[in-house]
Amino acid sequence: MEIRPTTDQDLDVFVGTLHAAFGRFPETPAEGGGGVWWSAFEMDRGLLATTADGRPVGTAGAYSFELTLPGEILVPAGGVTAVGVLPSHRRQGLLRAMMRHQLTELRTRGEFLSVLLASEALIYRRFGYGPATYTQRLTVRRHQAALALPRARAAADAPATGSDTGTVEVLRRAECGETLEEVYDRYRRAQPGALSRPHRWWALGAGQPPISRAPRYVAVHRDTDGVPDGYASYALGESDTLTVDEIIAADDAVFTALARFVLGHDLVSQVVFKHFPPEHPLRWQFADFRAGEVSGHTDWLWVRLLDVPRALTARGWFTDGELVLDVDDPFLGEHGRYLLTVRDGKADCVPTDREPDLSLDVSDLGSVYLGGTAPSTLVRAGHIRAHHPGAVTLADALFRAERAPHCLHWF
């Protein structure tokens, strides 16, 4: 069995092998090669596994993304995608070999973080990935969708908290692609856990709506100066259900304005927010707290640290303190003990022989890295070992983010 890098000439074979691995057939690309989810593949980052006689039996790919860390820090991250093995060649160690090969390639490129969306939750933890952001669906019955007046008020000369003085304009997706790209890019730079959407994704219509060319209406929010600062991509489907692909907003007031807009749509029985941040305050803004029904709470972005000291010193921190982390990486056969020292928002991380405060797997470190999973949760689950009670309290304080991480991008 051979694992080799791919080139642009391998695209058709790569796509065909990937679809065969999942028992599917490729769509027909639009003229010019765009309009399908794989049109943004970076073939210089792909891997193709072949048999001794040259038959393709496995694939693995990666995108070049920027990931926003706590502290509004942008770092490169390899976005693992298109991982598949033909049913005839599973349970033969091919997936492990491809993942090991890929992690080596990511390190060679100088990337110290890798991310993915897991098709099955059981697969990727053994390769060192841990779930780091979460998402859910919110279904709101329109007859219960009234928003309450804010009970708290700001200073006497300021507007009510969450108030909005902007405007909303309805456009078709084809009319506002550049605006969507600009608004999303500003949003993702400030949102922990968000990924970049490279220009070529928008240009090719790669991915899911609103990046794709699927018909959608878009409610574009503009501030008092007329500058776009938010949007909601949506479509009306069967059973009078309006489905919101995503709301991108500069702040909570803009999000509320866009939510109010879609919730007030005529001839709609319910509104479904497909990709709703778990800790978002919208549910608390309904006059009827039971107006929104949460479902489908699930993991989204999985994170893998490839260089522990670089990763820990890259993100921003919001509490001072010291922790000794004993980190095991069984898939790569590595083990390290590190002294993490945080002062004034910056971290130093160096090898140490001091006694550990926490012992953990690299996948668990990936889960807590963005602040979306508290270390204490994994201690209680029996995955992280705390060597003394104070270590848990300090770890929770250290690893928190300025706000909950959330990732909307599908890849």
UniProtKB/TrEMBL annotation:
N-acetyltransferase domain location, by residue?
1-156
- Residues binding acetyl-CoA, per UniProt: V83, G84, V85, R91, Q92, G93, L94, L95, R96, S119, E120
What the entry lists under PROSITE patterns is as follows:
GNAT (PS51186)
What SUPFAM superfamilies has UniProt attached to this entry? Acyl-CoA N-acyltransferases (Nat) (SSF55729), SCP-like (SSF55718)
Which chain positions lie within coiled-coil regions? none
User: What's the short name of a Pfam family annotated to this entry?
Assistant: Acetyltransf_17
Arranged from A to Z, the UniProt key words for this protein are:
Acyltransferase, Transferase
Active site per UniProt: Y124, F411
Q: Where are the transmembrane segments?
A: none
Q: InterPro entries annotated for this entry? A: Acetyltransf_17 (IPR041380), Acetyltransferase_Eis (IPR051554), Acyl_CoA_acyltransferase (IPR016181), Eis_dom (IPR025559), GNAT_dom (IPR000182), NAcTrfase_Eis (IPR022902), SCP2_sterol-bd_dom_sf (IPR036527)
KW Acyltransferase (keyword) present: yes
Q: Hey, what's the signal peptide range on this chain? A: none
Spell out the HAMAP family in the cross-references.
Eis (MF_01812)
Self-association and partners: Homohexamer; trimer of dimers.
Which family is it part of?
Answer: Belongs to the acetyltransferase Eis family.
Q: What is this protein called?
A: GNAT family N-acetyltransferase
Q: Which source organism? A: Streptomyces camelliae
Taxonomy of the source species: Bacteria, Bacillati, Actinomycetota, Actinomycetes, Kitasatosporales
